[in-house]
């Protein structure tokens, strides 16, 4: 916890982060928007905790062969989370997309 002298450090969970409690604490502090840049495990955990309201996804026209299968990893969801397209931009051959959660 070396950051405590210069930052508010919030810790939720012992062996695993309690994402729902952590995001709830941020909301209580008035921080209503959370941008996550954590890779497939974190996106999968946030999705499983039903904490994803928006997805920004960039598609690049490169064929690189086999590798990762999906953008999320972790537990299988019981219910599908439907998204609707909000923006699609094209630049330098890439597609930058933004989707909102359908409730």
State the main characteristics.
103 residues; alpha+beta; 3-stranded antiparallel beta sheet; 22% strand
Largest sheet: 3 strands, antiparallel
The number of E-state strands comes to 3
What is the SS-derived class?
alpha+beta
| Elements, N to C (H/E) | HHEEE
Helix content: 10-25%
Number of helices: 2
Q: Shape from CA axes?
A: globular
Radius of gyration: 16 Å
Average pLDDT works out at 91
Instruction: State the low-pLDDT regions, or none.
Output: none
Spatial sequence of strands, sheet with the most strands: 1-3-2
Distance between the termini: 38 Å
Strand content: 15-25%
Q: Helices, strands, pairings?
A:
Blueprint: H1 19-28, H2 40-48, E1 54-59, E2 83-91, E3 94-101
Antiparallel strand pairs: 1-3, 2-3
Folded structure, characterized:
With 103 residues, the protein is an alpha+beta fold. It is built from two helices and three strands, in the order ααβββ. It has a three-stranded antiparallel beta sheet, with no helix packed on it. The chain is globular, with a radius of gyration of 16 Å. The mean pLDDT is 91.
């Amino acid at each position: 916890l070396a950051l405590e002298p210069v930052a508010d450090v919030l810790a939720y969970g012992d062996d695993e982060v309690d994402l729902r409690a952590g995001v709830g604490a941020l909301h209580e502090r008035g921080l209503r928007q959370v941008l996550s840049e954590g890779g497939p495990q974190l996106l999968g955990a946030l999705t499983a905790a039903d904490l994803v309201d928006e997805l920004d996804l960039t598609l690049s026209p490169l064929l690189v062969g086999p590798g990762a299968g999906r953008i999320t990893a972790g537990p299988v969801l019981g219910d599908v989370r439907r998204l609707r397209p909000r923006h699609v931009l094209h630049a330098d051959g890439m597609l930058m997309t933004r989707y909102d959660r359908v409730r």
